[in-house]
Design goal:
alpha/beta
């Protein structure tokens, strides 16, 4: 099982990446890849250089239990050096395993409408983009242009007040602070600003963590700072309109936290 709060397992047929924006500065995947390379662990012989792993493609096919997978947590599926042909193989596996749900998150939003222009996005795909600051709000529009059962935003690490967010056709928002020795603090009012906009737009909201700095701005362990925002846990998940039973595999989800979004994609 994954330690990432909003998924169940990770599936990494691609590893390695390159930095494209401030959210990449303290990349957890890069740190982990270096450790795995030093061990040495199979699949990390090239460290954090982008590498495709055809031998890993079959893993979801071999798992019968319906599972929520975060796809390529150690990379970016839409990195410019990932061939369309290999992406096709990943999405073929996804189509062949409708029992699973796949969360695909990218910082390369502009590639989404180009890739899916001649391809359909399976109903068991939740497609998301990372939005860590105001400039990266521009990633939302290419996501919105791409037809998917669920479109989501990963607002982590949240590095500044995002201001107004257009949540039209967005089905889910995750917010989180940064962790690690070089973490940058997230201010409470930034997170509350996103929460309030989600509530107004009736978009399910998931608060992942405070990270290294708590709501008071004090550096502590991630565990000590916890996951409470506005006095409660936020673990809401979307219910895709095109696949009403899909959210049944959402990790740690409570029945009253599985919310149909008024912004379900049309």
């Amino acid at each position: 099982m994954s330690r990432i709060e909003w998924t169940q397992k990770t599936w990494n047929p691609i590893t390695g990446c390159t930095k494209v924006s401030p959210g990449c500065a303290n990349c957890y995947a890069e740190v982990m890849a270096r450790r795995l390379h030093a061990m040495p662990a199979p699949g990390y012989e090239r460290g954090f250089e982008l590498t495709v792993h055809p031998d890993r493609l079959a893993a979801p096919l071999q798992r019968r239990k319906p599972t929520m997978y975060f796809v390529n947590s150690m990379s970016d599926s839409f990195h410019r050096n990932v061939p369309d042909a290999f992406l096709d193989r990943i999405f073929d596996v996804i189509r062949d395993t409708p029992r699973h749900t796949y969360q695909v998150l990218t910082k390369r939003a502009r590639r989404l409408p180009r890739y899916f222009a001649q391809r359909s996005c399976s109903d068991n795909v939740w497609l998301g983009v990372s939005v860590e600051d105001r400039r990266r709000l521009a990633r939302i529009e290419p996501l919105r242009q791409t037809k998917a059962a669920v479109r989501f935003l990963s607002v982590e690490p949240l590095l500044e007040d995002l201001g107004d967010i257009d949540l039209t056709d967005i089905s889910w928002v995750i917010v989180g602070g940064e962790s690690g020795p070089k973490a940058r603090p997230m201010r409470q009012e930034w997170a509350l600003g996103v929460l309030e906009q989600c509530q107004t737009a009736d978009v399910p909201f998931f608060f992942k963590q405070w990270g290294t700095f708590g709501p008071d701005g004090v550096r502590r362990s991630k565990k000590a700072n916890g996951r409470m925002l506005a006095g409660r846990l936020w673990e809401q998940y979307p219910v895709p309109a095109s696949a009403p039973g899909r959210a049944a595999c959402a990790p740690r989800a409570l029945e009253d936290e599985l919310l149909p979004s008024s912004n379900a994609p049309r």
